[in-house]
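Email to the structure team, subject: enoyl-CoA hydratase model.

Hi all, the expression group asked for a predicted structure before they design truncation constructs. Nothing fancy, just the tokens so they can compare against earlier work. One-line instruction: predict enoyl-CoA hydratase, return tokens.
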Amino acid sequence: MTPEFILVTPQARPQVALIQLNRPKELNALNLQLMQEVAAALKALDQNPEVRVIVLAGSERAFAAGADIKQMAGRTAIDMLLIDQFSIWDQIRRTTKPLIAAVSGFALGGGCELAMTCDLIVASETAQFGQPEIRLGTMPGAGGTQRLTRAIGKARAMEMVLTGQSISAREAAQHGLVNRVVPVGQFLEEAFRLAHSIAQMSPVAARLAKESINRAFETHLDEGLHFERKNFYMTFASEDQKEGMAAFVEKRKPDFKGK
Ligand code: CAA
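Reply from the structure team: attached below.
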């Protein structure tokens, strides 16, 4: 089925796929169908052997202005519980390939949370990150209180979540929320550049390394180190590790096949 609210380009660049949120009139507000489309596209691209890295972008004006307020406004708590619209986000989190958010303009509420669900964030100078839900009489519900706190620390996360005030791309970079900030005309190209440099690496090693970094947020140090060590040993089962080390010894560029 052709998605209605996103555009998917499996080979936007060699080995790099692009998912573009495409609900411009609503500033890419994340309704349930849009999120289901994103999850389905990510699953397909995750299984596509031609794809090594995925870029998730919005438009220049808005990455996403949050969950769809109009869709949620009249719902009861029991509606919310039964629809459980944020459970689809767990599928996004299961993407094994590196996922880069290319953010310009508004990244608010669920938009900020979606960017933080990605592994890396490239921001344009106009990007604004915020969790304004408190102004609507509610709070972040798609990971904001957890991921923002881990990314920028308790004091800053408290201030953003309790006042609803946004931070600029520069502030987000200073606080470690985003990887880099570029002029607005370049944010997508910069995301592709970053994706390209990751796509040159062994996909097997990238997957295991991503899994290990994410484990750092879910466990204590001893268990995390054990997990990392097992994944490190696991890379030695790949042809890519043999190729990478042979190429170093032979003073040539490695050719990683993802096996
Ligand atoms: N849901 C539904 N529609 C939205 C939306 C949202 N989150 N954000 C913007 N829109 C719609 C507007 O209603 C408007 O539609 P109409 O033209 O039909 O009125 C259209 O997009 C353009 O928006 P504005 O006219 O408001 O544009 P602006 O430039 O004046 O303001 C903005 C932009 C500051 C982002 C403003 O739209 C805004 O404050 N949006 C809401 C941001 C927000 O509160 N997000 C959190 C949502 S709750 C959430 O995300 C929960 C969670 O944890 C997942």
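Strands lie at 6-13, 16-21, 53-57, 62-64, 99-103, 106-108, 120-124, 128-130, 167-168, 180-182. The mean pLDDT is 97. Ping us if the truncation boundaries need rechecking.
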